[in-house]
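Minimal example, chain plus zinc ion.
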Amino acid sequence: MTTFRWRPEARAGHARAGWLDTAHGSVPTPTFMPVGTAGTVKAMTMDSVRATGAGIVLGNTYHLMLRPGAERVRALGGLHRFMDWPGPILTDSGGFQVMSLGPLRKLDQDGVTFRSHIDGSRHRLTPERSTDIQHALDATITMCFDECPALPAAPDVIAKSMRMSMRWAERCRTAFIQRPGYAQYGIIQGGTEPELRAESVRALTGIGFEGYAIGGLAVGEGQELMFATLDATVPLIPDASPRYLMGVGTPDDLLGSVERGVDMFDCVMPTRAGRTARAYTERGTLNLRNARHATDSRPISPHCDCLACSRHSRAYLHHLFRANEILGPMLLTWHNLAYYQRLMRGMRAAIVDGAFAAHADHLRAQWAMDDW
Ligand SMILES: CNc1nc2cc3c(=O)[nH]c(N)nc3c(CCO)c2[nH]1
Ligand SMILES: [Zn+2]
């Protein structure tokens, strides 16, 4: 019987390398979670997701409750069976997606009423309903139902929103059904206000969760304010608890956040970029629609073992995107996710080898050389 926990392996300043033990297997941290919003990592098969080195994927309550419906997924054996992903799955709670996706939404102290962006039908999410839906999906890691306020916002607006999310966290914890190897994460809010962030950490650790997410960021505040908020918040999270920074980020964001003690990440950038011809590489990004790639026989990256880099040229990818061929997004999504996983593995190895500071300098120097 597995106990859900984060096990430390090595440290470099605030940065940490370890293992996340779950009911659906152990995952090395720091880890990047490909976003599988509607039960699929867009343009990927689960075998290709696994081939990139991903250990844990993210699903969304909001999308899956609207289509195909949480009860249908439960009846079909849960999300692991439905999408044939045997590894751990973290599901977001729906609050963020409602605020950013659902038109005509109405927020009150008890939850959110909204219309589906698919067919306009009316739906309601509360802390209890969100937790129940994630249980129906059989999520390995369940996220608390919260509100992620748009930034910038006045401190009193941030405070009111955070305190409502803390009341919702209490209700989520009550609704959560504990199972060996499963977890529920509290989501720290408080905008970019250090005192409000500290109040939120106190509230959540007072309730007690298996892990803690830093929410309310990557909403336009910029990297400097995001890092300053991490500096003020991460050290307050119990050392033994896994830390998850929601919605982040670029490779440079990931490096700076691992440096500050974050263990888990999710972001749509590598998959969204894969569909829009933007390739992530060790030396910055490439726009493969650009004519300069039309006759370039080199792979996207010489350091990459993905299907695009092992079998094809930049010229071929350029052609596929110019011709609007489906294979373009498939190959480039695979490459971008492989790059993100290689980046995480490289940072983890450097922490374990006691060479993290030098590795960070090397990464930053490479990214600055966008000459290929
Ligand atoms: C892209 N930036 C971003 N910031 C986020 C912030 C939050 C947040 O505060 N709460 C919840 N539940 N989810 C969030 C998500 C979705 C994660 O993919 C975010 N995504
Ligand atoms: Zn590649």
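The chain has 15 helices and 16 strands. The pocket of PK3 (ligand 1) is lined by residues 92-93, 95-96, 143, 146, 148, 187, 215-219, 246-247, 266 (CB under 6 Å).
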